[in-house]
Amino acid sequence: MSFLYNIIVVLLVALSFGAQEFLPAIEFANNARVLLPPVLFFSASLTVSFPMMLFLALFTGLVWDARHLPYKPEKPVAVESADLARELPVEKQPPNGTALPVGYSMFLFGVTGTLMQGIRPLFKRGRWELPVIMVGIATLLCLLIEFLMMSFLRGSFEFHPGLWTKLVTDALLAMLVSPLLLFMLHTLARLVHYEVRTEGLVYRYYGG
After folding, report:
1. Greatest pairwise CA separation for the chain in angstroms
2. Phi-psi region of 66 (alpha: psi -120 to 50; beta: other; left: phi over 0)
3. In sequence order, what E strands does 63-149 have?
4. What is the residue range of 15's domain?
5. pLDDT of the chain along its 208 residues, tens only?
6. 56, 76, 154, 172 — which has fewest CB within 10 A?
């Protein structure tokens, strides 16, 4: 029943973009928030095959970038270094020519999704400790790389203390939400009689 499971996962990722709009930001943590679509993608990467993970990376990356298309305001607005590029309000987006290209997120999700694929045996055995930590690490890596790429295009690397507060809070929130998403995916797999296959993986887990 892998086809049915994969279709449902794609639909869940699509719905997560709508749900993201209703998730509030934490003001005292530099507007950190639960980044639901990426977190769901990382969690789903533990359950699907490698080709399906690549498709999810393509889909999630394209929609994520489309959601944050660069916009050139009528009047230039200064961008604070503590803000991450894609988390800026529309009016604070950097001027055209310095924005990240649409499609770069596919690469980020593809790389981090590949890392998640390596610990699929843990998910299959119901051991979610490392997967939860890896979801937080993957979230942190994506946001940090995104910030570094934007800083490179701006020609200025400024690591404001608020940046680290936001990065760490986003990662912790991702780790907080990921067990619920993993449980949902685990339950969904059982309902549709989908088995998480780990054949072909270089790394295998033989723990109890």
Report:
1. 61
2. alpha
3. none
4. 2-20+36-191
5. 788 999 999 999 999 999 998 888 877 667 778 899 999 999 999 999 999 999 999 999 999 888 866 544 444 433 333 334 444 333 334 444 445 667 788 889 999 999 999 888 887 777 778 899 999 999 999 888 888 887 777 777 777 777 788 888 899 999 999 999 999 998 999 999 898 876 544 444 344 4
6. 76
185 three-state secondary structure: helix
Closest-CA residue to 165 (of 148, 143, 145): 143
Residue 138 lies in a domain: yes
Structure tokens of 62?
């394209």
Taking alpha carbons only, the member of 142, 172, 147 closest to residue 159 is: 147
Count of domains for the chain:
1
CA distance 38 to 203: 24
